[in-house]
Amino acid sequence: MNQAVALLTGPAHQRVLYAVNDQAAVRGLRAGLSVQAAQALAPDCSLVEFDPVAVERDRQLLAAWAYGFSSQVSLMFADAVVLEVSRSLALFGPWPDFERRLRTELNDLGFRHRVVAAPNPWAARALARVHDGFAVGVPQLKHALGCLPVEVVGFADEIALAFARMGLRRLAQVMALPRETIARRFPPAVLDHIDALCGRSLPLPFYQPPAIFSRYLEFDHEIELNTGLLFPLRRLTGDLAAFVSSRDGGVQRFKVVFEHDHAVATTLEVGLLAPERDAMRLLDVMRHRLEHATLNGPVRAIRLLAEDLPSFVPPSADLFEQRAQGALTFDQLRERLRARLGDKAVHGLATDLDHRPERAWRTQRPRNESPASLADARPAWLLEHPIPLRAKANVLFGPERVESGWWDGEDIRRDYYIVETEQGQVAWVYAEPGEVGPFMLHGFFA
Q1: Is the pLDDT reported for residue 294 higher than 70?
Q2: Report field, pTM of the whole predicted structure over 0.90
Q3: Which of 19, 85, 247, 406 is the most exposed place for a label (fewest CB within 10 A)?
């Protein structure tokens, strides 16, 4: 971006600049300058309203994305997202490869950034204000910090100004002062901050990802054509994919709400056959659904809400993959057909335990692993004696009537079901003929 841009803040009668980009700074603009002075210095500078809500929303997204690389992510600093990466290097490779991956994904998310690695978060944040692509270890940390100007290391503005008036331009000069002198002339927070920069600090509060994903985009003008919505939808599905990947999960159902100025909002619900987290596949499904949707009017804003975020199991592939590059997988083909033809137009087939030919098969909702494949299965672990099933369960297959043993006096007559418990176990249970519960637990599938 070669254009000068500044963010505005403050009441309507006293607008000032909140922040400026590099091009605006070269023209003499700086934070705190009035709008009138800024327009006199750079008449062609673009002035944009600062939106703290949007900034916090982006910070939460970045934290969720960083959570995919480390469980120790903090948003304590207003101008930085910090994460502990020493344990992540064993998984993501040495720092140059890891840094390259971070930059690639940040670019895909649309964020300009600086990346710095240091032994503690306070030092990394201070160094990132001056450097980009800089990595420093413990032996070199003191020298690297000492070269920093005092105004960028995190001191309050009045503290940094006081140091400058004393002729202390670099942090090394401040660190060379006796601690008693600093403690006598400055508040205790100054020494605490120097200690934090050197690594003697308290733990940071860590980020915890939310249980649902919600993202909102508002436009400056109404968008009338559905094709004009693809670009913002690409951003939203990309953010969703980054969010669920950070949780090591996927998304199976989500809702897209299109808001209009003069009509009731249009809600488009999207359901997938299996959990997914690939941004391009999510966008492809969304695009086909949008082609057949009728919106209530021109779109002013879009909200994407995902509450069904189950665990994600990557699809298995053959060792010697023969599929041509760019060809659709079977799962992708099913999703595309459902998006184009509707959810009820695509279904699976399953065998049924009935000797009548016209009743020996039935339709079912497609799944990654069809329950019909379990029809003739028996559990690997059979209990010595059946016991009542206490947990809540979802029926995957059944009933299968088992009626036998009349010849030896120990005859049974049971309806067996294959169920999935709330703990994720696949169990073999039975009930009295014609009844769907209560169940007796007889075994577990491996």
Answers
A1: yes
A2: no
A3: 406
